[in-house]
Amino acid sequence: KNNCDLSSMDLDDNLVACLIEETQMENDSRSIVIPWMTVISREDLSCAGNEGILDEESVESFDLRTAIFDHILAGKCSPDDNCTSPYDALHEPLHNYLSIFDGDTSEITISVTPKIIACAKGHFLFHAFISIPQYSEVDDNDDEHTNRIHPPFNGNRLF
Q1: What is the rounded CA–CA span in Å between residue 137 and residue 147?
Q2: How open is the CA angle 18-22-23, to the nearest 5 degrees?
Q3: Residue 71 and residue 159 in contact, taking contact as beta carbons nearer than 8 Å
Q4: Less packed terminus of the chain by CB within 10 Å, N or C?
Q5: For 115-132, what is each residue's pLDDT tens digit?
Q6: pTM (two decimals)
Q7: Of 70, 63, 127, which is closest to residue 98 (Cα–Cα)?
Q8: Is the distance from CB of 126 to CB of 113 less than 8 angstroms?
């Protein structure tokens, strides 16, 4: 079974958000921590407290690891937009790594700081650190088939 720990909790005018860390054991005896954010309305939570029953539809859960990957990969500004995003520096290294390893994210580390902050209107802020390991690829475009080393990439951002 997996182990879940409540790391942080905050509320705005309408919602309560919880930051949960789920620890999963891998086959090779190492563990991976998956950060989750669950959100429930304050009204549903207060009703559940009185009755002791919580309806499954009243709780929304977000796998933050997957959400961070999706956000970084979708957030690249095009050159025609004449804009920059704080996530642009993460986009290319992540995209290159995933294209070489067929989308396998198991070696990429994402750590979410155990603090969540309510920003109002259903928006919650958290800080995450991402680490893409060093890898190499064979460049088949030249006659020598050179081995290109990509250095590790580390970055942190607010999400």
Answers
A1: 6
A2: 155
A3: yes
A4: N
A5: 999 998 889 999 999 888
A6: 0.75
A7: 70
A8: yes
